[in-house]
Design brief:
- The protein has about 140 residues and is mainly alpha-helical.
- It is built from five helices and no strands.
- The chain has helices spanning about 5-25, 30-50, 65-75, 80-90, 105-125.
- α1 packs antiparallel against α2, α1 (about 5-25) packs antiparallel against α5 (about 105-125) and α2 packs parallel to α3.
- The protein is globular and about 45 Å long.
- The two termini are about 15 Å apart.
Length: about 140
């Protein structure tokens, strides 16, 4: 496992969700961009798990595909089916006009979904110190 690559993917995931939350303060709220950033955050978290598992992630935005592969490594990823399914809608369509009818409630759900995926992945990434002992401070 490339620890620095895992950390980098997690950091990018965290930046996307922080950016989405920051944009919530705008008036009007850019719902499409917020939902897109939520999808991106989830995508990067799932890809971090691939790297953690020693697999190079594919160049895809399909959260269902990414989650399916995670599930082959850890069956508990089946708990994220609904979140990945909902966020998958925001992978490309929000970047173009006349696509989705988004509401503030859907935006809040997208934020919740990506936070759920991020926390789930982070809980499964076990960081170890150089001597092989588990790092309990992570």
């Amino acid at each position: 496992m490339d620890r620095s690559a895992v950390d980098e993917w997690i950091a990018y995931s965290d930046t996307d969700i922080a950016s989405a939350k920051h944009l919530c303060s705008m008036n009007p709220q850019p719902l499409e961009i917020i939902c897109y950033l939520c999808q991106q955050s989830a995508e990067k978290a799932l890809k971090a798990y691939w790297i953690y598992s020693g697999i190079s992630p594919p160049k895809t935005h399909d959260l269902e595909h990414l989650r399916d592969k995670c599930e082959t490594m850890d069956k508990s990823f089946d708990e994220l089916i609904a979140e990945c399914d909902r966020l998958n809608l925001y992978s490309t369509q929000p970047r173009y006009p006349f696509g989705l009818e988004l509401t503030e409630d859907l935006m809040k759900l997208a934020i919740n979904d990506c936070e759920t995926i991020s926390a789930f992945v982070k809980a499964r990434i076990i960081y170890q110190e150089e001597d092989g002992e588990e790092d309990t401070d992570a």
